[in-house]
Amino acid sequence: MAKSSTDQPNSKFLRDMEKKKAVSDHEKARRAKLKNTERLRELRLAKEAEEAAAEEANPTKKKKTKRRSGLPPFVPEVDTGSN
User: Fold this and answer.
1) pLDDT tens-digit readout, 34-82
2) Domain extent for 17
3) Is 65 helix (H, G, I), strand (E, B) or coil?
């Protein structure tokens, strides 16, 4: 079935409307994502500032890690046979 010439302008109008709606939906989703990202960033920065203030108020000494003596686990011990 061939489309009549009266259907073409109407379908073009419908495509344009769909395009505008899709672009609008995309922009709305993008703005919502940016707003959420900004909110999460503010929460993270507030938490970090709170932790930094708590650390300044009550500093704790960091423990040094204990060094293990002997050979590393990947080097096998060699028996020299001098018993």
Assistant:
1) 999 999 999 999 999 999 999 888 877 766 776 666 666 665 666 766 6
2) 8-52
3) coil
Q: Answer yes or no: is 82 within a domain.
A: no
pTM (whole model) above 0.70:
no
Is 3 a member of any domain?
Answer: no
Contact of 77 with 71, CB cutoff 8 Å: yes
Largest Cα–Cα distance of the chain, in whole Å?
A: 106
What is the number of residues in the chain?
83
Is-contact 39 33, C-beta < 8 A?
no
* Number of structural domains in the chain: 1
Please, which residues have CB within 8 angstroms of residue 3's CB and are 6 or more apart in sequence? 11
